[in-house]
Amino acid sequence: MNKMTLQRHIKEIEKRDNLALKKRAFDLFTNRRVGNMGPDLYTNGGGDKYSQIISTNEQYIPYQGEVALIQEKKSDIARWAKDIDTVIIIGPGPAQTMETKELPILKLLPALKTVKLIDLSEQFNAQAAKVLEQSFEPPLYVETYTGDFNTVTLNQNYSRALVITTGSLTNFEDAPLDSFPSSIAGSYLRRFQEMAKPGGKILWGYDSNSNAAAIEAEYESSEISAFVLNPLNKLSSTSGVDIDPKKFIYTPEFFPRGSHLAHYWTATAPQNVEIDDETISIFEGDRFLCFSSIKLNPDKLNIIAQNKGLSSHCAFTHSNSKQILHCFDYN
Questions:
Q1: How far apart are alpha carbons 110 and 81 in whole angstroms?
Q2: CB 3.0 to 4.6 Å from 92: which of 5, 123, 128, 129, for a disulfide?
């Protein structure tokens, strides 16, 4: 690909991404969708902001607790998956999370030959692939897929796999506030099954905390606020958009019945937002649920999994937190 062709390709990607961003923002601000801004959190510098959260915020229990639990249970997990030669990692995140979460497990899998990485961030995929490249001799066969795990098309060069997603795959879109998101959780498990194939295994790491005050306190930090508000900065510099990102603040609120931590963009002043000649009037106090973190309940998830034909091998729980490593067999 020559330089001119490459530049044209980059511009086409930017145009596509900008159109998608505007569509998601329009749907959010016009109340057509909720929790749908996840794809934009890790772009335009968002990935670096997330890396800062996990490297500097010791109170961010969803990360710190899960790392501790993996260190405690990695040998048990490896024994459970000892015959698996292919691992599919959904949402590996930046290098630091790959090094502290998945890598300790992968190093203990004696039959491992292939790892497939799926992430919304091309930057994170590249970092995770580099960690694997530097950590195994002889090297593993590594494939990367950038996009939504629900829609990526995997190379079917395997008979069964261990599907791992730790911490990142609980950001459900259009999730209810006042009832457990059973249908969404079920659709995720069904997709995991498709990837794992019969005889495969699923490891789903998640936070099961249901203490509203404790959860909201974990997320009230300047680093997390900057991360969640970051897509507004990209939106404000996008062609066809007029919005003042400084007129929003970040506010989290936990809804126990839905096991749902809602991340809001809350308006601090009125403004008219323009998106491609459409005017949306926003008033002080309006809030928009841009992103969701679901605090899954292991007992409810067990029932949903059984209905999908999965059997729960175990659910490891850390003694000092509510982090869960839930292991499922697809027989």
A1: 9
A2: 128
